[in-house]
Write a structure and sequence with these properties.
The chain is an alpha/beta fold and 204 residues long. It is 57% helix and 12% strand.
């Protein structure tokens, strides 16, 4: 089974993936952040590196999904291939940080790749307000994230909401990240686990 966690930068995807992996005994597949050769350059000069970064993520996540399918295990994935295509790349294009030629090239590649894979059995969407995102980003203190602007996070949130509203690929569970302090509170984490069990097994 493939469970995927979607959400904006700083919404708590990686933390939740780790906690769910520990609780359920699922294998966790994390976003390739530390080894990403484009991320620092991208935050320094978004226009120059946006296409390279998005192609890297697309390739990395496609590879991840193929491995998830081949493994035959239950896997929880930190971020989906769809977020790059429906949120991050179009956002860069609309901000003038990716050319129309590059965006169309990128999207053609995504369409081909997505036709070859199955969507997740369950998508968890961590909905978080901009203040929550900013707080979490500051807390983890990644140097390259210091330059992320509030309006950039706001634009991404708007795109996430539009995408989630139109998502029809499978089961979806929306988790209000502002309301749950799952990294610190076992009670909050247990409430999320109960909701996931209800979605997966129909337990109410």
């Amino acid at each position: 089974m493939h469970i995927a966690i979607a959400g904006n930068i700083g919404s708590g995807k990686t933390t939740l993936a780790g906690l769910l992996s520990k609780h359920f005994g699922w294998e966790a597949h994390y976003e390739d952040v530390d080894d990403n050769p484009y991320l620092n350059d991208f935050y320094e000069d978004m226009q120059r590196w946006s296409f390279n970064l998005q192609i890297y993520f697309l390739n990395s996540r496609f590879d991840q999904v193929i491995k998830i399918i081949d493994s035959g295990k239950t896997v929880v994935q930190d971020r989906t291939i769809y977020e790059d295509a429906y949120i991050f790349a179009p956002n860069l294009h609309s901000m003038g940080l990716m050319t129309t030629r590059d965006f169309e090239n990128y999207f053609t590649l995504f369409n081909m790749m997505s036709s070859l894979i199955k969507p997740p059995d369950l998508l968890l969407y961590l909905r978080a307000s901009v203040p929550t995102l900013v707080n979490q980003i500051q807390k983890r203190g990644r140097e390259y994230e210091n330059s992320i602007r509030i309006d950039y996070l706001k634009r991404l949130n708007e795109r996430y909401e539009a995408w989630i509203e139109s998502y029809k690929l499978g089961k979806i569970l929306i988790i209000e990240a502002d309301a749950y302090d799952f990294p610190e509170s076992n009670e909050d984490l247990n409430q999320i686990i109960d909701k996931i069990n209800a979605e997966l097994h129909g337990l109410f």
